[in-house]
Protein backbone atom coordinates (compact mmCIF):
# COMPACT_ATOMS: atom_id res chain seq x y z
CA UNK A 1 0.00 0.00 0.00
CA UNK A 2 1.36 3.42 -0.96
CA UNK A 3 0.60 6.08 1.66
CA UNK A 4 1.51 9.78 1.61
CA UNK A 5 1.13 12.00 4.65
CA UNK A 6 0.77 15.69 5.30
CA UNK A 7 2.35 17.24 8.38
CA UNK A 8 -0.53 17.08 10.87
CA UNK A 9 -0.97 13.31 11.31
CA UNK A 10 2.77 12.72 11.75
CA UNK A 11 3.38 15.68 14.03
CA UNK A 12 0.40 15.05 16.29
CA UNK A 13 1.15 11.36 16.72
CA UNK A 14 4.83 12.15 17.40
CA UNK A 15 3.88 14.64 20.11
CA UNK A 16 1.93 12.01 22.02
CA UNK A 17 4.43 9.20 21.40
CA UNK A 18 2.15 7.20 19.09
CA UNK A 19 3.92 7.65 15.75
CA UNK A 20 4.51 3.91 15.54
CA UNK A 21 0.78 3.46 14.83
CA UNK A 22 1.32 4.70 11.27
CA UNK A 23 4.12 2.20 10.75
CA UNK A 24 2.07 -0.67 12.15
CA UNK A 25 -0.91 0.25 10.00
CA UNK A 26 0.76 1.19 6.70
CA UNK A 27 4.39 0.11 6.79
CA UNK A 28 6.14 2.83 4.80
CA UNK A 29 4.81 6.40 4.62
CA UNK A 30 6.02 8.92 2.03
CA UNK A 31 6.26 12.64 2.78
CA UNK A 32 7.20 15.46 0.43
CA UNK A 33 10.09 17.80 1.13
CA UNK A 34 7.74 20.59 2.28
CA UNK A 35 6.26 18.35 4.98
CA UNK A 36 9.74 17.50 6.24
CA UNK A 37 10.49 21.23 6.30
CA UNK A 38 7.27 22.00 8.21
CA UNK A 39 8.13 19.31 10.74
CA UNK A 40 11.57 20.87 11.22
CA UNK A 41 10.05 24.32 11.81
CA UNK A 42 8.00 23.03 14.73
CA UNK A 43 11.03 21.10 15.94
CA UNK A 44 10.95 20.76 19.66
CA UNK A 45 11.21 17.98 22.15
CA UNK A 46 7.43 17.71 22.04
CA UNK A 47 7.11 17.44 18.25
CA UNK A 48 9.62 14.63 18.14
CA UNK A 49 11.10 15.84 14.85
CA UNK A 50 14.47 14.27 15.52
CA UNK A 51 12.71 11.01 16.32
CA UNK A 52 10.75 11.33 13.09
CA UNK A 53 13.96 11.58 11.10
CA UNK A 54 15.22 8.37 12.69
CA UNK A 55 12.24 6.37 11.42
CA UNK A 56 13.37 4.71 8.21
CA UNK A 57 9.77 3.89 7.30
CA UNK A 58 9.06 7.62 6.82
CA UNK A 59 10.57 8.36 3.44
CA UNK A 60 11.05 11.81 1.93
CA UNK A 61 10.16 12.01 -1.74
CA UNK A 62 10.60 14.88 -4.18
CA UNK A 63 7.70 16.10 -6.27
CA UNK A 64 8.17 16.39 -10.03
CA UNK A 65 5.28 18.73 -10.91
CA UNK A 66 5.99 22.07 -9.22
CA UNK A 67 3.48 23.86 -11.46
CA UNK A 68 0.63 21.82 -9.95
CA UNK A 69 1.94 22.69 -6.48
CA UNK A 70 1.94 26.37 -7.47
CA UNK A 71 -1.66 26.11 -8.67
CA UNK A 72 -2.74 24.53 -5.38
CA UNK A 73 -1.01 27.23 -3.33
CA UNK A 74 -3.93 29.58 -3.99
CA UNK A 75 -6.00 27.44 -1.61
CA UNK A 76 -3.51 25.44 0.46
CA UNK A 77 -0.24 25.77 2.30
CA UNK A 78 2.86 24.32 0.69
CA UNK A 79 2.90 21.13 2.78
CA UNK A 80 -0.67 20.25 1.87
CA UNK A 81 -0.09 21.14 -1.79
CA UNK A 82 3.06 19.02 -2.05
CA UNK A 83 1.45 16.11 -0.20
CA UNK A 84 -1.45 16.11 -2.66
CA UNK A 85 0.84 16.36 -5.67
CA UNK A 86 3.13 13.62 -4.36
CA UNK A 87 0.12 11.39 -3.74
CA UNK A 88 -0.96 11.92 -7.35
CA UNK A 89 2.56 11.31 -8.69
CA UNK A 90 3.18 8.06 -6.80
CA UNK A 91 -0.41 6.91 -7.35
CA UNK A 92 -0.93 6.64 -3.61
CA UNK A 93 -3.60 4.37 -2.27
CA UNK A 94 -4.18 6.82 0.58
CA UNK A 95 -3.40 10.40 1.56
CA UNK A 96 -3.26 11.25 5.27
CA UNK A 97 -4.49 14.82 5.66
CA UNK A 98 -6.60 16.52 8.31
CA UNK A 99 -7.34 19.97 6.92
CA UNK A 100 -10.84 20.20 5.46
CA UNK A 101 -9.91 22.25 2.39
CA UNK A 102 -6.99 19.96 1.56
CA UNK A 103 -9.17 16.87 1.91
CA UNK A 104 -11.79 18.38 -0.36
CA UNK A 105 -9.28 19.29 -3.07
CA UNK A 106 -7.52 15.92 -2.83
CA UNK A 107 -10.85 14.12 -3.19
CA UNK A 108 -11.71 16.22 -6.24
CA UNK A 109 -8.39 15.13 -7.74
CA UNK A 110 -9.38 11.49 -7.27
CA UNK A 111 -7.35 10.73 -4.15
CA UNK A 112 -8.60 8.61 -1.29
CA UNK A 113 -8.10 10.56 1.93
CA UNK A 114 -8.19 9.80 5.62
CA UNK A 115 -7.54 12.01 8.60
CA UNK A 116 -5.89 11.24 11.90
CA UNK A 117 -9.20 10.30 13.50
CA UNK A 118 -9.87 7.81 10.71
CA UNK A 119 -6.43 6.35 11.36
CA UNK A 120 -7.35 5.88 15.02
CA UNK A 121 -10.57 4.10 14.09
CA UNK A 122 -8.60 1.82 11.78
CA UNK A 123 -5.91 0.95 14.36
CA UNK A 124 -8.64 0.06 16.84
CA UNK A 125 -10.48 -2.13 14.32
CA UNK A 126 -7.25 -3.93 13.44
CA UNK A 127 -6.50 -4.55 17.11
CA UNK A 128 -3.33 -2.46 17.31
CA UNK A 129 -4.76 -0.62 20.33
CA UNK A 130 -7.32 -1.66 22.91
CA UNK A 131 -8.81 1.81 23.31
CA UNK A 132 -8.63 5.09 21.40
CA UNK A 133 -10.20 7.35 24.04
CA UNK A 134 -6.90 7.90 25.84
CA UNK A 135 -5.21 8.66 22.50
CA UNK A 136 -7.92 11.18 21.63
CA UNK A 137 -7.57 12.79 25.04
CA UNK A 138 -3.78 13.05 24.67
CA UNK A 139 -4.14 14.56 21.20
CA UNK A 140 -6.41 17.22 22.64
CA UNK A 141 -4.43 17.87 25.83
CA UNK A 142 -0.81 17.47 24.71
CA UNK A 143 -0.90 18.24 21.00
CA UNK A 144 -3.65 20.86 21.00
CA UNK A 145 -5.54 18.85 18.37
CA UNK A 146 -9.01 20.35 17.95
CA UNK A 147 -11.98 18.03 17.66
CA UNK A 148 -15.65 18.89 18.07
CA UNK A 149 -17.53 17.10 20.82
CA UNK A 150 -19.81 15.57 18.19
CA UNK A 151 -16.86 14.12 16.25
CA UNK A 152 -15.22 12.95 19.49
CA UNK A 153 -18.39 11.02 20.36
CA UNK A 154 -18.62 9.64 16.82
CA UNK A 155 -15.07 8.25 16.97
CA UNK A 156 -15.83 6.61 20.31
CA UNK A 157 -19.06 5.17 18.86
CA UNK A 158 -17.28 3.81 15.75
CA UNK A 159 -14.68 2.12 17.95
CA UNK A 160 -17.23 0.69 20.37
CA UNK A 161 -16.11 2.89 23.24
CA UNK A 162 -19.18 5.08 23.71
Account of the protein in words:
- It is a single chain.
- This protein is mainly α and 162 residues long.
- Helix content is 54%, strand content 10%.
- The protein contains 10 helices and 5 strands, in the order βααβααβααβαβααα.
- The protein has helices spanning 7-15, 20-26, 33-41, 49-54, 66-72, 78-89, 100-108, 116-125, 133-141, 149-158; strands at residues 3-5, 29-32, 58-61, 94-96, 113-114.
- The strands form 2 sheets. A 3-stranded parallel beta sheet has the order 1-4-5. A two-stranded parallel ribbon has the order 2-3.
- Helix 7 (100-108) links the parallel strand 4 (94-96) and strand 5 (113-114).
- The N and C termini lie far apart (31 Å).
- The model has no long low-confidence stretch (mean pLDDT 92).
How are the secondary structure elements laid out?
Layout: E1 3-5, H1 7-15, H2 20-26, E2 29-32, H3 33-41, H4 49-54, E3 58-61, H5 66-72, H6 78-89, E4 94-96, H7 100-108, E5 113-114, H8 116-125, H9 133-141, H10 149-158
Parallel strand pairs: 1-4, 2-3, 4-5
Helix pairs in contact: 2-8, 3-6, 5-6
Provide the descriptors you would attach to this structure in a database record.
mainly alpha; 3-stranded parallel sheet; 162 residues; globular; 5 strands
Can I get a quick summary?
By secondary structure, the protein is mainly alpha-helical. The chain contains 10 helices and 5 strands; from the N terminus they run E-H-H-E-H-H-E-H-H-E-H-E-H-H-H.
Shape by Cα distribution:
globular
* Strand adjacency order, main sheet: 1-4-5
Unreliably modeled segments: none
Q: In sequence order, what are the helices and strands, one letter per element?
A: EHHEHHEHHEHEHHH
Helix content: 40-55%
Instruction: Report the end-to-end length measured between terminal Cα atoms.
Output: 31 Å
